[in-house]
Amino acid sequence: MIRRKSINRTILAVGAAAVLVGGTLAWFTSTDTVTNKFKTGGNGTGQSKGVEIWENFASDKALEVLPGTIIDKEVQAQNTATYNSLIRVKLTPTIISGSTTADVSNIRLIFSENVIKRGKSTEGNTNGKWLQGTDGYYYYLGNVAPNGYTTMLLKDVQLDKTAGNEFKDVTFDVVVNAESIQSDNGAYADAWKGAGQPVLDKLAIVAGQTAGTASQIPGAGK
Predict the structure, then answer these.
(1) Largest Cα–Cα separation, the chain
(2) Cys-Cys with 194: which of 127, 135, 145, 169 at CB 3.0–4.6 Å?
(3) Which of 190, 80, 202, 211 is nearest to 139 (CA)?
(4) Residues β-bridged to residue 139
């Protein structure tokens, strides 16, 4: 089943079952994708099979973005599988139309306080935090129970104050890709080995913990 979620909140979701292929077990995994369009100012339903993205997105404000504008886009994920899951999310700013010179580096992602900043220590209790892997994904450091939620990952999106005329009449997206995998039997170590050792070490700890849930973001929708 494939659907796309834009500002009008339809959803693209692909569920995958475990199958035996060539003698190798393909772990239980799921994906969900959200695309939100932001439009700068110029001169003139579905359900996924294992993971869903929930967000509180200021879609009206995103239709007239100026340099320095901050748009609410609070993002978290939900485990909609029937088994405990680990979850990772990738955020991809993309220029859709209006300019061939606009640089996506001017699209700033403002993360929540739950994200461990680069260079910060990961020692001690990091449950409920997010840690970026070497593959660009943000990994949730928690074992999420069925119907449970992660904490907030993304808080806001901002068009940088230094963005120039190349951003006039530009439409850009921030695509959110969420993936989940069963937390049992070390599935993450096989499927997510590109995350890097610091992330894998943390996932090894949380995968063996009792599954739980964070609170749903107030006002968030699918």
Answers:
(1) 61
(2) 135
(3) 202
(4) 88, 131
Domain ranges of the chain: 12-207
| Whole-number Å distance between alpha carbons of 169 and 41 | 6
Cα→Cα distances 101→65, 93, 95, 108, 141, Å? 18, 15, 10, 17, 37
CA distances from 123 to 114, 120, 135, 199, 207 (A): 15, 9, 21, 12, 17
SS3 203: helix
Cβ count within 10 A of residue 208: 11
More confident residue, 191 or 12: 191
Q: Is the pTM of this model over 0.85?
A: no
The pLDDT tens digits for 112-160 are: 999 998 878 888 889 999 999 999 999 999 999 999 999 999 999 999 9
